[in-house]
Amino acid sequence: MLSEKQEEIIEAVWCCEETGDCSIETIRKRCIADFTDDDLRELEKQGVIVRHADKILFSSTGKLLAEAVIRRHRLAEVLVSSILRLEASAMEEVACKVEHGLDPDVEESICTLLGHPEVCPDGKAIPKGRCCKKRLRLGDNTVVSLRDLKPSERGKITYIKPGSHSNLHQLISLGLHPGITVMVHRTSPVFCIKFENTELALDEEIAKNIFVWKIQSA
């Protein structure tokens, strides 16, 4: 059982690994918790990390543990930013508190509720869980791709998958962003939506990468 401090160290190592710099100095700067050499020795003793000179790497076992920790954290970020709609300044702190309390069953339920997001709000990959591989769903009460909605159905945007299309930043500038309620006007010959007195035609690939909380009809 990892402590919260150990999980924070693991998160920092993972994030530094993503950037290609696993030096202890960089990891210390990245970690939100101060740690000592004794903390690192304990993680080594548990078989989580391996130290090579001034670098920290994961063991095969540690990689699996880190993947689970990162998955919980990034799911928590999606939850607090998209559903709770917290500002970026508060998102990290709240996400940290949420992630440490997630057990596997709750984690899968949240992931399914969110529609199995592939990335967190800042575009970093979310490791897949068992529920993602099975593509579990909660019926209509879930986050789905905008492309899955039928004409006249409405949804509130929860997140837009970043980097998936060069025009996404333009959509945001037009007012299409998390929190906005949209209605599918038609799906052919072109996919068209309405929101806030605006009618907008979308490429289907863009629509697939906009995720909404489906609003049930009255």
The number of domains is 3
- How much is the radius of gyration in Å? 20 Å
Distance between the termini: 46 Å
State the share of residues found in helices, binned by percent. Answer: 40-55%
GO cellular component, one term: cytoplasm
Subcellular location: Cytoplasm
Keywords: Iron
InterPro entries: DtxR_MntR_Metal-Reg, Fe-transptr_FeoA-like, Fe_dep_repressor, Fe_dep_repressor_sf, FeoA_core_dom, Iron_dep_repressor, Transcriptional_repressor_C, WH-like_DNA-bd_sf
Keywords:
alpha+beta; Arc Repressor Mutant, subunit A; SH3 type barrels; 3 domains; two-stranded antiparallel sheet; elongated; Transcriptional_repressor_C; iron; Magnetosome protein Mad30; DNA-binding transcription factor activity
Please outline the helices and strands.
Elements: H1 4-19, H2 24-30, H3 37-45, E1 49-52, E2 55-58, H4 60-83, H5 88-99, H6 104-113, H7 130-134, E3 143-145, E4 154-160, H8 168-173, E5 181-186, E6 191-195, E7 198-202, H9 204-208, E8 210-215
Antiparallel strand pairs: 1-2, 3-8, 4-5, 4-8, 5-6, 6-7
Helix pairs in contact: 1-2, 1-4, 4-5
Pfam families: Fe_dep_repr_C, FeoA
GO cellular component, one term: cytoplasm
Protein name: Magnetosome protein Mad30
